């Protein structure tokens, strides 16, 4: 079910979170609570806030049960195979210049020399005489020791962070979060504002969540690594999550002079919040490196970030520009519509159900459904039987994104940043909007330059009245914008930041 939060409510709870996070009584363990770090107004982030305006006792009990289940699961893992904070192949270097914190999302990325987020940056730093160690947060179900072994031939040392610490260390984390929760519950009773009272009480519930434990555990792992490697700089992917702030503070607790760098690797969306907010000094980055010029301008002009250096490093997701599509047909056949859902069930259900209705209205147009790597069509079908039997003009993609794009004329999307590559490859973007929602369009700043649809009939009208000449100039403007979202990666920018920190 989609959260029904309007802009006024969103602004209200963002302000409440800010007041709480900046309160003098807040400490390291409480900063770690993910719920207080509002990322942006997307359904996947908003569900947890709706209850503030429509409180339900059953929801609070569900959170308590989830907290207990998460604790029991992690403590059992710690008892069975906890201990080392990470796994690696051989001995780590005695020192390094840069500690990179990245993510291992799926097994297909194993043993790749280039990092999924930082690309060739570590290799280019090595060519300039700067050594790097990459710490990977493991989201796969594969044993960290096995994962570490796949990087045996890599020139860049890598460690796979453990999903749990030793049993004693895990118990200590749970003790800390429960102490933090009790303090918050006491503080809540003294608040004069009803909203702040409800916020702090719910924050006390969230203090013992699995997300809070994850952030604190990562903080301990960062402390171990910084103490062991003595890097001059630490760089983490940066979207505004609590664990990123904890990583900075943990690194500074070991080495106060370390340069803390946040890499803004994803698009900046409408009303994106936590990444643009200043906290107490230890939790802020010294430098923010952006994926393109669009994000740099937004962050540089934000008064909250005054004093933070903001530079464009670019992205390994930059794309070569191609001419906009000028024909609805290819080899005499009608081009397709590429459908780009996000990697969660709610958004998949919404966009694919809409595309299914469009396919019924337009039997001569093919609709290519390209699922996010996190999604599985069998699991989606089990959840929603409407997809059990598809129309003959709907195709589940088994090709590369480039191959799907080559067959297509339009790209139907909501919050997926894959739309940037589609636009740069010449496709016409069509955004599905919901009445009354806060926009989740990655291209929200140029919404008037591309098509927006609400009903399947809107899409059918666009398809039947496609006028290539009148939209060519607009398409070029959209491409100009997308070109500045992800620019080519330039590791020299990172080198300059590290050198300046000496």
Low-pLDDT runs: none
- Per DSSP, the total helix count is 19
Mean pLDDT: 90
Strand order of the largest sheet: 1-4-3-2-5-6-7-8
Characterize the biggest β-sheet: 8 strands, mixed
Please, what is the oligomeric state? single chain
Q: Give the tally of β-strands.
A: 16
Summarize the amount of helix as a percent range.
Answer: 40-55%
Q: Cα-atom Rg, whole angstroms?
A: 24 Å
Beta fraction: 5-15%
Helix/strand class? alpha/beta
Termini separation (Å)? Answer: 51 Å
**Which word captures the global form?**
globular
Overall description:
With 502 residues, the protein is an alpha/beta fold. It has 19 helices and 16 strands. The N and C termini lie far apart (51 Å).
Short structural description:
The chain has 502 residues and is α/β, with parallel strands linked by helices. It is 42% helix and 14% strand.
Topology (SSEs and partners):
Elements: H1 7-21, H2 28-31, H3 43-46, H4 50-53, H5 57-81, E1 86-88, E2 98-104, H6 121-127, E3 132-138, H7 144-149, E4 158-161, H8 167-188, H9 194-206, H10 210-229, E5 233-237, H11 242-254, E6 259-264, E7 287-290, H12 293-300, E8 309-312, E9 329-330, E10 333-334, E11 336-340, H13 345-361, E12 367-369, H14 377-383, E13 394-396, H15 401-406, E14 408-413, H16 418-424, E15 428-432, E16 451-453, H17 456-464, H18 468-483, H19 491-500
Parallel strand pairs: 2-3, 2-5, 3-4, 5-6, 6-7, 7-8, 11-12, 11-14, 12-13, 14-15, 15-16
Antiparallel strand pairs: 1-4, 9-10
């Amino acid at each position: 079910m989609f959260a029904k939060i309007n802009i006024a409510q969103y602004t209200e709870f963002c302000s409440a979170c800010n007041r709480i996070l900046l309160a003098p009584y807040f400490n390291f363990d409480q900063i770690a609570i993910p719920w207080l770090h509002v990322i942006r107004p997307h359904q996947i982030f908003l569900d947890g806030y709706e209850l503030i305006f429509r409180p339900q006792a059953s929801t609070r009990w569900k959170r308590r049960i989830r907290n207990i289940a998460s604790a029991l699961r992690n403590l059992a893992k710690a008892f069975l195979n906890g201990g080392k904070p990470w796994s690696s192949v051989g001995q780590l270097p005695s020192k390094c210049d840069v500690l990179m914190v990245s993510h291992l999302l799926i097994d297909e990325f194993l043993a790749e020399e280039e990092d999924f987020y930082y690309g060739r940056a570590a290799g280019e730093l090595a060519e300039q005489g700067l050594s790097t160690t990459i710490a990977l947060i493991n989201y796969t179900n594969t044993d960290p020791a096995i994962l570490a072994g796949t990087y045996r031939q890599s020139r860049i040392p890598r460690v796979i962070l453990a999903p749990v610490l030793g049993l004693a260390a895990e118990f200590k984390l749970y003790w800390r979060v429960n102490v933090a929760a009790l303090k918050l519950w006491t503080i809540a009773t003294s608040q004069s504002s009803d909203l702040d009272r409800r916020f702090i009480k719910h924050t006390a519930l969230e203090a013992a969540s699995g997300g809070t434990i994850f952030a604190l555990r990562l903080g301990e792992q960062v402390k171990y690594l910084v103490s062991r490697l003595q890097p001059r700089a630490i760089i983490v992917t940066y979207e505004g999550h609590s664990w990123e702030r904890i990583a900075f503070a943990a690194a500074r607790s070991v080495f106060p002079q370390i340069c803390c760098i946040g890499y803004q690797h994803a698009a900046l969306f409408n009303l994106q919040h936590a990444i643009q907010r200043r906290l107490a000094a230890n939790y802020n980055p010294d430098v923010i490196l952006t994926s393109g010029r669009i994000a740099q301008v937004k962050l540089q002009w934000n008064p909250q970030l005054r004093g933070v250096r903001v530079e464009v490093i670019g992205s390994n997701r930059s794309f070569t520009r191609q001419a906009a599509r000028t024909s609805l047909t290819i080899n005499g056949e009608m081009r397709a519509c590429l459908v780009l859902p996000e990697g969660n069930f709610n958004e998949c259900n919404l966009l694919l159900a809409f595309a299914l209705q469009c396919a019924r209205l337009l039997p001569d147009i093919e609709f290519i459904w390209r699922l996010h790597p996190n999604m599985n069509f069998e699991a989606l079908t089990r959840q929603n039987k409407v997809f059990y039997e598809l129309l003959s003009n709907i195709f589940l993609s088994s090709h590369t994104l480039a191959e799907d794009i080559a067959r297509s004329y339009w790209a139907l999307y909501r919050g997926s940043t894959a739309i940037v590559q589609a636009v740069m490859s010449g496709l016409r973007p069509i955004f599905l909007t919901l009445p009354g929602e806060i926009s989740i369009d990655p291209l929200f700043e140029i919404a008037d330059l591309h098509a927006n649809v609400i009903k399947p009939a809107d899409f059918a009208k666009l398809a039947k009245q496609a006028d290539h000449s009148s939209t060519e100039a607009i398409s070029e403007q959209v491409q100009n914008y997308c070109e500045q979202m992800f620019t080519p990666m330039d590791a020299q920018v990172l080198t300059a930041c590290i050198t300046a920190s000496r």
